[in-house]
Amino acid sequence: MEINIVVITGAGSGLGASLAKKYSEQGCHVCLLGRTRAKLERTAALLNGGYSMYEVDVAVKKDVARVIQSIEKEVGPIDLFVNNAGTGAFALAEQIDEQAIHHMIDSNLKGTIFCTQEVLPFMKKRNRGLIVNVISTAGKEGKVTESVYCASKFGVRGFTESLALELKDTPIRVLAAYMGGMRTEFWDGIFTEERTKGLMDPDDVADIIIESIKPRNLLAVPEVVITNKK
Q1: Which CATH number does the domain housing residue 84 bear?
Q2: What is the rounded CA–CA span in Å between residue 61 and residue 126?
Q3: Position 230 in a domain
């Protein structure tokens, strides 16, 4: 299917910004969603074509509904929705504070569910659409100091696999993207600059995701796993 309108959550930096730039270069209208307007404006400055910006916290269902309805009404039908927004707090299981736990479950898991719930009826009505859930390899295996982050991502994995089964007899497609650490602001204050040097470039990850959702005869890619070289 032809992709004209792309919506990306967490578009203010990292992989979200990389995807936005690449889809803009392809002539798509890109809708940038995020909590911080200054970050969205920074991404917007990189784009070559049409774009829209929407400040939204994906963990707040009524705000998600308002934004997606506005996009459908003011911009047009959403062809591709990328659930990319997420957050992480890392420590031993007993040391992760309550607020951080709520924040990860609300943003990573509930945010993905709420966004999907709002965009899916529009896609079903048109009988077309693509949903990409950016999950992380933390949704594939447990990791030290990442217990709650992994719990949230395992939740997204279960939601995504179930969603794909619900949609298997429709033209609407779902891609689960599992990737390791990328060289982004996500790790600011967590990893040293020396450690982040060995992480993946989000532009490379964006290229792989874009290639994975291109329509191809007689095959489909339900998930892609992208890891750092050991």
Answers
A1: 3.40.50.720
A2: 23
A3: no
Q: For the segment 113-166, what is each residue's pLDDT rounded down to a tens digit? A: 999 999 999 999 999 999 999 999 999 999 999 999 999 999 999 999 999 999
Is the CA virtual torsion 115, 58, 14, 190 positive or negative? negative
Catalytic residue (choose from 23, 54, 149, 178): 149
Q: Which two tokens stand for residue 15?
A: 């992989």
Q: Rounded distance, CA 29 to CA 2, Å?
A: 12
User: Residue 225 domain-assigned?
Assistant: no
Q: Which domain holds residue 13?
A: 5-217
Tell if the pTM clears 0.70, that is, is over it. yes
Distance, in Å, from the CA atom of 64 to the CA atom of 74, rounded to the nearest integer, reads 15
Residue 13, sorted as left (phi over 0), alpha (psi -120 to 50) or beta, turns out to be beta
Q: Both tokens of residue 78?
A: 């959403």
23 assigned to active site: no
136: helix, strand or coil? coil
Tally of structural domains, the chain: 1
What 3-state class would DSSP assign to 150?
A: helix
Q: Quick one: residue 196, left, alpha or beta (phi over 0 = left, psi -120 to 50 = alpha)? A: alpha
* Structural domain contains residue 93: yes
